[in-house]
Amino acid sequence: MQLDPKKLTPMPGYVLVEPVEKQTKTAGGIYLPDSSDEKPQAGTVLSVGADWSTEHGATIKSPVKVGDKVVYKKWGGNDVKIEGVEYQFLKFEDILAIIK
Predict the structure, then answer these.
(1) How do the domains of the chain map onto residue ranges?
(2) What number of CA atoms fall less than 13 Å from residue 40's CA on the CB side?
(3) In whole angstroms, what is the distance from residue 13 CA to residue 29 CA?
(4) CATH 2.30.30.100, domain 5-99, yes or no
(5) Pick from 13, 23, 6: which is nearest to 87 by CA?
(6) pLDDT tens-digit map of 42-100
(7) Strands 42-48 and 69-72
(8) How far is CA 75 from CA 4, 28, 41, 45, 72, in A?
(9) Under 8 Å between Cβ of 65 and 36
């Protein structure tokens, strides 16, 4: 089965993010070794799930919309690899900022 990330709709309370490409070179031109395998903490929102209802009955609306560039928690989310590309499913609360 072939998956198209643009056709995925996250469950309520989640967003699908395409992380930025991992840096292989610093601004000064120094190449980074493969051992510095830090996961990116920023990306573009591809799709947004429905509002999330808490166990106390409160409704939490998505803080982002499709196309927003966001910064998220370092260890937040779940990695999903689709056709060789890694994506992140993040909870609304894992998103730290919107990049303007």
Answers:
(1) 5-99
(2) 18
(3) 40
(4) no
(5) 6
(6) 999 999 999 999 999 999 999 999 999 999 998 888 999 988 889 999 999 999 999 99
(7) antiparallel
(8) 25, 28, 9, 17, 9
(9) no
- Cα distance between residue 17 and residue 39, in whole Å: 13
For the whole model, what pTM was predicted? 0.80
Q: Is 87 helix (H, G, I), strand (E, B) or coil?
A: strand
From CA 51, how far away is CA 64, in angstroms rounded?
11
Average pLDDT over residues 10-19: 95
Name the 3-class secondary structure at 45.
Answer: strand
| Tokens 């966001």 sit on residue | 70
